[in-house]
Amino acid sequence: MREGNWACLLILLLLLCLEQVLSVGQLMESSFSRDAFPPDFIFGAGTSAYQVEGAAAEDGRSPSLWDTFTHTGQMIDKSTGDVACDGYHKYKEDVKLMADTGLDSYRFSISWSRLIPNGRGAVNLKGLQFYNNFINELVKYGIEPHVTLYHLDLPQVLEDEYVGWLSPKIVDDFTAYANVCFTEFGDRIPRWTTIVEPNVIGMASYDSAIFPPARCSNPFGVINCTVGNSTIEPYIAVHNLLLAHASVVKLYRTKYQGVQKGQIGLNLYAYWCYPWTDSAADIEATQRTLDFNVGWILNPLVFGNYPEVMKKIVGSRLPSFTKYESKQLKDSFDYIGLNYYTSVYVKDNFNASMTGPRDFNTDVSVLLARSRNETPGGQFDPTIPALIDPIGLQLLLEYFKDAYGNPPIFVEENGNGVARKESEFNDTSKIDFLSGHISSILDAIRNGANVKGYFVWSFMDVFEFITGYQSRYGLYFVNFDDENRERKPKLSAQWYSSFLKQKKKKKKKKKKKVEMRINKTDLVISL
Q: Can 486 be counted among the known catalytic residues?
């Protein structure tokens, strides 16, 4: 081959290599930087006790609802959280990974059945020691613990004794459990979230029976319903969840907050809603959907009562608050935790839903779709691929600002899962997801939304409540086929770490130069 052709070929190969390097570099960079956010903005990641700890039958822990549910083969992959990520034994390794990643804060939950195995009464000293050790390890590395008291894992003994959240007895037991947590851990905890996703608990645990204790009545359950009443139990359970939250907040503010200086709030799951068309019926249905999903939880906390549309449609099936309860609920938060993953399109179905047996979904009376290219269906289905919509998060945060007096918000869950065998390490779709949603939060802040922090779901691959081990949301890969549960960083972990550690580049980037000598001729390529 002639010398000139060799030179051209080498230049071409060099350019191809540089293109590859630069494309990876661009992937690791964002159009915004961390210091575009307020100085006190918190970035973190999270998991929950049952999903990560394992050690299900070790050191005095008693079964929770999820142990019973998974051990009866209810998961689609027949999996359990018996070992999960083995976080109970590997917490020191995990905290080191958090520090290496650059997290400001780590969101986790305390297992009620590990700390107080009988649901009330004696504290399990080994469980107490584990959480003290774990919290101390976080503090040692300068990572703020962001703690959830209840993440869907009620001690089974309380379900057996008085049907759990369907009984008002649970308010006192939950308050007593919280009191132990505040006493033992509160000196190191800056933020407490009382309960995660009470609206999901109502729908998934007491209507469709996707989650334990899997109570439902036909024709509303995804299973053959043998126990429960989908018509009333979702509303009763959420009512008691709200009263339990208010009781715990009163305890914390009265006895602990003045000394410990922490904050306390409640979490909810929400999706943004777009009207299917611009018709008055679809626009009204969209607001009704927001009222039933968001207002069901936030209206009592902000205004002291349920939304008027809920009271009108649900009628006597919706429990009512006494004046004392309403007063206790109103303003019972220092912040609101938000779990956001997707948006939906809403089509009115009110007239078609006025006859026959009723549950939460028939009360809302809408049809939902992921896009305008599909036929709307009867209810939200979390098992199918969701619409990825960062703008929806911005709109939801601005809706909180306009409708609820701009409360402080922590986005406590936001993430994107991939199938177990699909792109386990090179998860570029997750990077796009996280970057888009973080950017939308920044836009919401610039528009006046009072957003205080953001937590990726999840820090590592965990046992997922819907799919078991069939989907992976983690920044870190966990090998569930390895008894050591080895952790490895995915590309998304590298991206998030780079984002957390980067600073704005104050100067314009200089063009990169690559020099190469071919046949005594210097070639300089500027890029």
A: no
